[in-house]
Write a structure and sequence with these properties.
Shape: globular
Structural class: mainly alpha
Largest sheet: 2 strands, antiparallel
Number of helices: 12
Distance between the termini: 70 Å
Radius of gyration: 25 Å
């Protein structure tokens, strides 16, 4: 009985940590599965289209029954807002992001994703949604972290560096991969620009999503809408880009299971885990686990799949992670400072209320008959 209580207590305490590690592992495996599927001929645009249409079909029944009374009435302006959100968060962004995977490597794209926090921070400052106290240590940490992150991604983009080849035969071989980095990873700069551009779109999407949730608080329904609209947008774009019918035929092999895995594991399980952990531990806790995927990808790429690691990606990725944690530290101290200020104001208001009550009870003039 005591052992069960101890085990239950440990699970309650460390469940968010375990679930976030599993979520990052799901993302890590996705990069290698999609890379293998792309090498076998799966078109990135077709992949994005099928993936989000599949997720929309899976999510809509849950969203319809669970959020019946929460969904606001759909208006033209609200739909246009969802249309832009879908463009920035699904169709445009993910098409650029996964297209960049064809020209670079999983290690590179996972490292670039870590700059989203810094990009969002800069855009928020430009839009005057974020205030930085340059006289405080937390404000300087946020500025320094942003600069360091951008220095890291610039290093990765402009400097590929020498290849570090695996010294032994890889246990698992990705079909169609070239360990020399020639065909699949040839146009490094093109892939780098696509990856950075996708992260900029993601940063704008995060800022827009925060304000959109105030007008459309049904999170599951909003996700279903974005997957549906984004899938339709991607379909139209892919029809113009891919005219051959065989590009749309995926069969029931690796291409099919790649789409199913990405939809269920990455758009389903991981999104639920992130929302749950955000509610339990806060957004900073969730963001802190993002670099874990970069480390997992690098380890699996080199030791398991036998892919080359490049000096530029290793150095730049490490610099980006350092900058990310500096920024997150500053943001966390901001939240602590803000909550302390609110508590102080609340305490002062409570004191004023108690003083007023005491004045009313003891200081009020008594009337005589």
């Amino acid at each position: 009985m005591a052992l069960r209580e101890v085990t239950g207590g440990l699970w309650v305490r460390y469940a968010p940590h375990v679930l976030m590690v599993l979520a990052q592992l799901c993302y890590t495996l996705m990069y290698f599965i999609t890379e293998a599927a792309f090498n076998q001929g799966l078109n990135p645009y077709v992949y994005i289209t099928y993936r989000h249409l599949l997720v929309a079909v899976l999510i809509w029944p849950f969203a319809y029954y669970q959020e019946k009374g929460l969904r606001p009435k759909m208006t033209l302006m609200l739909f246009m807002e969802i249309f832009v959100l879908s463009l920035l968060g699904v169709s445009l962004t993910l098409n650029m992001y996964f297209a960049s995977l064809k020209y670079t490597s999983p290690t590179f794209v996972t490292s670039v994703v870590n700059t989203i926090a810094s990009m969002t921070f800069v855009i928020a400052i430009i839009l005057r949604m974020e205030i930085v106290d340059v006289k405080s240590l937390r404000g300087l940490a946020k500025i320094a972290g942003t600069v360091v992150s951008f220095a890291g991604v610039t290093t990765m983009t402009l400097y590929k560096g020498a290849a570090i080849t695996s010294l032994w035969k890889s246990p698992v071989h990705i079909p169609g991969s070239d360990s020399g980095g020639g065909v699949a990873h040839g146009s490094w700069v093109k892939g780098s620009v696509l990856a950075v551009a996708s992260c900029i779109c993601w940063s704008i999407w995060y800022i827009m999503q925060a304000s959109s949730l105030k007008r459309y608080p049904a999170q599951l329904s909003l996700t279903a809408w974005m997957c549906t609209v984004g899938g339709i947008q991607s379909t139209i774009f892919t029809v113009f880009m891919q005219h051959k019918p065989e590009d749309w035929r995926i069969g029931f092999g690796l291409k099919f299971w790649c789409i199913v895995y990405s939809g269920i594991a990455c758009n389903g399980f991981t999104v639920f885990v992130q929302l749950w952990c955000t509610e339990k531990k806060g957004p900073v806790f969730v963001t802190m686990f993002n670099p874990l995927s970069t480390i997992m990808v690098a380890i699996l790429a080199y030791f398991i799949f036998g892919e080359n690691l490049y000096v530029g990606s290793i150095v730049g990725g490490g610099v980006v992670i350092v900058g990310l944690y500096m920024l997150l530290w500053g943001k966390e101290k901001d939240q602590e400072h803000g909550s302390t200020g609110e508590e102080r104001e609340q305490l002062e208001m409570d004191c004023e209320k108690q003083a007023k009550k005491a004045s009313d009870v003891y200081g009020a003039p008594k009337t005589t008959k």
